[in-house]
Amino acid sequence: MHEGSWGISHTRVPTESRPGHVALIAGFYEDVSAVAKGWKENPVEFDSLFNESKYTWSWGSPDILPMFAKGASGDHVYTYSYDAKREDFGTHDATKLDTWVFDNVKDFFHAARKNQSLFSKVNEEKIVFFLHLLGIDTNGHAHRPSSREYKDNIKKVDDGVKEIVSVFKQFYGNDGKTAFIFTSDHGMTDWGSHGAGHPSETLTPLVTWGAGIKYPEIVSADIAPLMASLIGVPFPLNSVGRLPVDYLNGTDHFKAESVFTNAVQILEQFKVKMAQKKEVTLPFLFTPFKFLSDSEQLNILRKARSYIKQGKFDEVVSLCEELIDLALKGLSYYHTYDRFFLGINVVIGFVGWTSYVSLLIIKSHSNLTRDVTKEVKKPSCLLLCSFGAIGILVAVFLLIQACPWTYYVYCLLPVPIWYAVLRQFQVIQDVVASLLTFPLSRFVGFLLVFTLGIEVLVLSFFYRCMLTAGLIAFAGWPFLTQLWTQAKITSLSWTFFSLLLAMFPLMPVVGREPDISLVMGAGLLVLLLSLFVVTSLIKRKNSLVKEELLVHLLQMLSTVLSMYVVHSTHSSLFKKQGLPLMNQIVSWKYVYGNSLAIPLLTSQILVIYGPHHQIIHTR
Predict the structure, then answer these.
(1) How far apart are CA 596 and CA 588, in angstroms?
(2) Angle, vertex CA 145, rays to CA 140 and CA 150, nearest 5
(3) CA-CA distance, 21 to 50, in Å (whole number)?
(4) What is the helix (H) or strand (E) element at residue 80, kind and residue range?
(5) Residue ranges of the GPI ethanolamine phosphate transferase 1 C-terminal domain (predicted)?
């Protein structure tokens, strides 16, 4: 690099195209509510670099470009997109998506020489040209980043960028007033996926050169204020990016003024967020961000203005960066202001639901209660009225604070759940009485095993091998119970399959190439086991088994169909023939058909296998 600088940009999860581009062009990290619209539409309107520019011309994907033109104030954002059908992971050469962009940009500048109106626009100041190159992403998904197609696409983009830079220099007479920024909205795993928080997905390249660039590691939201500063337009209103001063090749005075503007812009967001939260929170419940009071804000701004007048530009930069730090922390504080409150309600709801399900299982399928079949007493009017009053109080509290409708879901859902739990008071009494009869050593042993199991599950989120340890422990469980003496075949089967499952968490999460043999092998194993079950059911001449037999046969048929679709799809994509239409139809019908039909066909009979087969009705 002889003309600019390069480095690494850090983006955030979810590493998807829409939030990645919003961070780059608008300078803030989009709220997760955007997932409800498929990351394609604006859940809320926001300001962006394109909106602040005099004119913006953009070329590329129809999924990305329209969302910035839609929110722009005026008709100064122009978009040129190819047909959405071109974005096919299997049949088309994805490199042509990038070639289309490069060719259309060259045609655009060729036409500008002959069109006086367009020529005058592209010679204005504060203009942006945005080239969205989707080919590499599409080839990464379709063929994996290690493929020849992916590497060829990178070379094609490299050559295309050289040509476009040459076109700009020729058109503007090599005047040195154009700044170039080359970056990405997200990375990609070796498997060709993105969306999570692995470094291969969150680390993206950043290459900058041209006018105003001095010479390396920032976050993606910082790129929006950098671009705004380079072309001399206001920072986007919603931007939380810090201006990377080291990238600017300007005077110290210019840098100080730019950072001061950046600090004031972020501070205004902090003030608005605080005012919004204060307005909808009861006065005695509101807790302000204590590290950035009104007096502290005025003091820092007064000092910064004084330093600018005195020419102490380094002190201005340092002071403004401190203010930006505090303002961003304050923004985060108010953005997550209700997190603890909502978290408590979610935990209460989950604990209540788990308790209710556990009580139903204990009541129907255990001997811990005194009388499972006795009539359930009619719930007392006092209990019903109490929970009704609690629900009304919660709703009124949320209404006073003008909370969004999602808060009502989080806060009101625990009310009927815990009402249902307390209706099972007799079962709770029986369970407590049964537990009190346990020897202390046995009770402590069960408690330790339960705690250890929870810890293994939690650690498995960070260390996959913990699942292997848990499954190995499961494998030895039958030998510690009476099941080993009563049903040796069942015990050995349990141990074998537990150890078999224990192998999989030790395997790599993703690879460079798909291993279809594992999927087919798993399908064949399921069919083999299903065959044993069906044979066992046929031998038993019992009318209650007919429904179970039908369900098992349908499941076997579904397994065969699934194996065919997976193998056919893999083969078609490997041959670059795209995803067959019939496979799409079968897959959607399979999902919707099974989700509706299987629950209706499944019996509510609980079968318990032991030394003597028992069938218990739970209808």
Answers:
(1) 12
(2) 70
(3) 12
(4) strand 77-81
(5) 329-604
Helix (H), strand (E) at residue 249: none
Q: What is the pLDDT of residue 574?
A: 78
How far apart (Å, rounded) are the C-alpha atoms in residues 240 and 329? Answer: 11
CA distances to 20, 135, 592 from 142, rounded to whole Å, are: 21, 10, 26
Distance, in Å, from the CA atom of 275 to the CA atom of 285, rounded to the nearest integer, reads 14
Distance CA 30, CA 22 (A): 7
d(CA 604, CA 360): 14
pLDDT in the model for residue 605: 47
Report the run of H or E that residue 554 belongs to, with start and end: helix 545-574
Count Cβ atoms below 10 Å from residue 364 Cβ, excluding itself.
14
CB–CB of 20/40 below 8 Å? no
DSSP string, 425-446: HHHHHHHHHHHHTS-HHHHHHH
Chunked mean pLDDT (size 10), the chain, 619 residues: 76 86 86 56 73 93 83 80 78 86 96 94 94 92 87 94 94 91 92 87 90 73 91 91 87 94 96 93 91 93 95 94 95 93 94 92 75 53 91 94 91 95 89 82 86 91 90 89 84 90 82 75 88 80 70 85 88 79 83 68 48 39
What whole-number distance in Å separates Cα of residue 214 and Cα of residue 252? 13
Whole-angstrom distance, CA of residue 608 vs CA of residue 483? 12
Residue 616 pairs in a beta bridge with 606
What type of residue sits at position 40? K
Contact 359, 424 (CB under 8 A): yes
For residues 552-567, one letter each, b for 16 or more C-beta atoms within 10 angstroms of the residue's C-beta and e for the rest, the string is: beebbeebeebbebbe
Of 248, 240, 112, 111, the C-alpha closest to 181 is 248
Ramachandran category for residue 126: left, alpha or beta (phi over 0 → left; psi -120 to 50 → alpha): left
Please tell me the distance from the alpha carbon of residue 494 to that of residue 237, in angstroms, as a whole number: 60
Amino acid present at 289: F
Distance CA(338)–CA(331), nearest Å, equals: 13
> Which segments of 71-218 does DSSP mark as H helices, in order?
95-112, 116-122, 135-143, 148-171, 199-202
Single-letter code of the amino acid located at 396: V
- Pairing type for strands 217-219 and 127-131 reads unpaired
Q: Cα–Cα distance between 157 and 572 in angstroms, integer? A: 27
Distance CA 66, CA 17 (A): 13
What span, in angstroms and rounded, lies between the C-alpha atoms of 100 and 94?
10
- In degrees, rounded to 5, the angle at the alpha carbon of residue 39 between the alpha carbons of residues 37 and 43 is 55
pLDDT at position 537, please?
76
Q: Rounded to an integer, what distance in angstroms lies between the CA atom of residue 598 and that of residue 619? A: 17
First and final CA of the chain: distance in angstroms?
74
H or E segment and range at residue 9: strand 4-10
